[in-house]
Design a protein that fits this description.
Length: 316
């Protein structure tokens, strides 16, 4: 069998596959369902200091090809998840707390509560695209740097960052420099593309209500963008920061694509929303079949090993 164990610092993920924050993670029962599945870890809903109802419904729409959502960070507040983690630690699987502040000071208050909790790692969400009138933190490099430096001083647990997609190589270069300087322990790539929509032609209306029908695009249609993000970031990281690939993984072959691009851990979002926690077992079986076909002793042998095609004569 191919070794399929991932690491963030000293934390072992066996297997290195889990839910993405936002799917099957809002309640303690959701997290329990993930922990009782073949997933190797769970990630909470992005939590804030106080509970939030989120944006008005309809705020999420999905098909076989994509999802669009403008949830507005509905969650039960940090105290709820701290208590849930205390009870869920019995499963002896890593639990990652996803957190976001509506103001930068809230990140610091959240970090104090989570530092003392039973969570094994903290994912700092700098990428929420669905708060009306709010800019995405990770697009303001100076602000992102300031927040991360302050959090690094406060957090001794493994600390990672969830980023939005970037459309400029220069922007990727600049934020990668910051992440290396701060010495984050992992990076999740990536949150949904922030300016998507779905239009229901028969009704002649958008599929979701908030933000004028605009939301984050995820799922299968988003996968090529995520693979590009992973590929570019891993060239800057050079193996120094583990990448969690999150975007469009529905089958084992999609996990393998993320692996080749440079991800060593994997999160499932839209497909999990459609198919439920049994999907972890299906993806694992398919991925292991690929690993065995390739004759791998460890899946890490293929991490970041995607190659350029051979040049060929092009006939006009």
């Amino acid at each position: 069998m191919t070794e399929f164990i991932g690491f963030i610092g000293d934390i072992k993920f066996h297997p290195p596959i889990m839910n993405a924050s936002g799917v099957l993670c809002t309640t303690e029962e959701d997290l329990q369902a993930v922990l009782e599945s073949r997933a190797g870890a769970c990630v909470t809903k992005t939590m804030t200091l106080e509970p939030r109802e989120g944006n008005p419904k309809p705020r999420c729409f999905w098909t076989q090809d994509f999802s669009v959502n403008s949830m507005g960070i509905p969650n039960k507040g940090v105290e709820y998840y701290v208590e849930a983690a205390r009870r869920l630690k019995k499963y002896q699987k890593p639990m990652i707390a996803s957190m976001a502040g509506l103001q930068k000071e809230e990140y610091f208050l959240l970090s104090e509560k989570l530092e003392k909790s039973d969570f094994h790692a903290i994912e700092v969400n700098l990428s929420c695209p669905n708060l009306e009138g709010k800019e995405i933190f990770a697009y303001d490099f100076q602000l992102a740097k300031e927040v991360l430096y302050q959090l690094r001083k406060r957090i001794s647990k493994p600390m990672g960052v969830k980023l939005p997609p970037y459309s400029s190589r220069y922007h990727i270069q600049e934020i990668a420099k910051i992440l290396l300087e701060v010495s984050v322990d992992f990076v999740s790539l990536s949150n949904s593309f922030p300016l998507g929509t779905a239009i229901l032609s028969e009704k002649e209306e958008t599929a979701i209500l908030p933000n004028g029908g605009i939301g984050g695009l995820g799922g299968k249609a988003f996968r090529p963008i995520v693979l590009g993000q992973i590929l570019l970031f891993q060239r800057h990281f050079k193996g120094q920061i583990p990448i969690i690939g999150v975007g469009g993984i529905e089958k084992g072959v999609h996990l393998y694509e993320h692996l080749l691009a440079g991800a060593s851990l994997f999160q499932i979002g839209t497909a999990l929303l459609r198919e439920g926690p049994f999907l972890f077992q299906k993806i694992l079986e398919e991925a292991n079949h690929i690993f065995q076909q390739k004759g791998l002793s460890s899946y890490r042998d293929k991490c970041g090993k995607v190659k350029a095609p051979s040049p060929k004569d092009q006939k006009e």
